[in-house]
Amino acid sequence: MENVLFVCVENAGRSQMAEAFFRKYAPAKYNVISAGTTPSSRLNPTVVEVMKEVGIDMTQQSPKTLSNDMIENSSKTINMGCMDKESCPALFVKDVLDWNISDPKEKSIDAVREIRDQILKEVLQLVQSLEE
User: Fold this and answer.
1) What is the DSSP string of 88-115?
2) Inter-helix orientation angle 14-25/45-53, to 10°
3) Which of 28, 34, 94, 108 would bridge with 6, disulfide CB 3.0–4.6 Å?
4) Are 11 and 39 in contact (CB under 8 A)?
5) Where is the Phosphotyrosine protein phosphatase I domain (predicted)?
6) Cβ contacts of 15 within 8 Å, gap of 6 or more
7) Global pTM?
8) Topology classification of domain 2-131
9) Where are the domains of the chain?
């Protein structure tokens, strides 16, 4: 099994959506996890709502702290983007892909839908590239 890791600062929105989409669309030979450098206490409720709109239930997911084990055991690490440069996971992880996706925190539901759709597109491209 190969591990794919999605990282951001709070692990409450972008990386959680990426984890959920990757779990749905990637081949079974991949494990997926998401984590943050300073995780929030809960998922962004708007993120949970917009994912439910596309048939993905994220109510069992919760923010997790990025660990050295996660980094070392991942064959592919994707940074979702950083607003907070001091806590940016890309500072701690080498060979990271950076998608530079906007943080859904405090955004309107329509803006979060756009972010969700952008993440879906990126995840599907990643899944395709892993299969080549």
Assistant:
1) -GGGT-SSEEE--PPP-TT--HHHHHHH
2) 30
3) 34
4) yes
5) 2-129
6) 6, 7, 8, 34, 35, 36, 80
7) 0.93
8) Rossmann fold (3.40.50)
9) 2-131
